Amino acid sequence: MNKYQAEIDVMPKKEILDPQGKAVTGSMKNIGLSEIQNVRIGKHISLEIEAANEEAATEKVEQACKNLLANLIMESYTFKLHLV
Amino acid sequence: MNKYQAEIDVMPKKEILDPQGKAVTGSMKNIGLSEIQNVRIGKHISLEIEAANEEAATEKVEQACKNLLANLIMESYTFKLHLV
């Protein structure tokens, strides 16, 4: 078995309002960073996974994202795997 | 002025307990994914920034992370910039 590290981003979908991101965009102006726009805030998840190969690890991470980590109605996910 | 997209990860520091991650690690077992271990959960932030060059954009994103997005006592951040 190999051990892989997965780095997953779960973000609100583009067509979904992101009130936390909007609030932070406003706060950027207050601290003098008005050049910063369009802030969107989601989750970053790192995890370790034991699997026979990268394909099996990818499958498990897909399952974890779909069943637990992301709400697919409102969020989308992307991830990268690397061997540790 | 150029427009850059920044992709920022804000994660709890290694020496800090991550109760949300621990809870999710436990839930992985319940949905049949006991191969998944050591889940840690942080924030992923994407934003757009106008700057003269990549160096100036990096400086502004550093400021945003230090002053607003991350709590440096408990969290660390990493980011990538790309031109849009």
TrEMBL record, chains A, B:
Keywords annotated in UniProt: ATP-binding, Cytoplasm, Ligase, Nucleotide-binding, Purine biosynthesis
InterPro entries the record matches: PurS, PurS-like_sf
Protein name, as recorded: Phosphoribosylformylglycinamidine synthase subunit PurS
Pathways per UniProt: Purine metabolism; IMP biosynthesis via de novo pathway; 5-amino-1-(5-phospho-D-ribosyl)imidazole from N(2)-formyl-N(1)-(5-phospho-D-ribosyl)glycinamide: step 1/2
First and last residue of the signal peptide: none
Gene that this polypeptide is encoded by: purS
Quaternary structure annotation from Swiss-Prot or TrEMBL: Part of the FGAM synthase complex composed of 1 PurL, 1 PurQ and 2 PurS subunits.
Organism the protein comes from: Mucilaginibacter paludis DSM 18603
Role, per record: Part of the phosphoribosylformylglycinamidine synthase complex involved in the purines biosynthetic pathway. Catalyzes the ATP-dependent conversion of formylglycinamide ribonucleotide (FGAR) and glutamine to yield formylglycinamidine ribonucleotide (FGAM) and glutamate. The FGAM synthase complex is composed of three subunits. PurQ produces an ammonia molecule by converting glutamine to glutamate. PurL transfers the ammonia molecule to FGAR to form FGAM in an ATP-dependent manner.
A cellular component annotation (GO) from this entry: cytoplasm
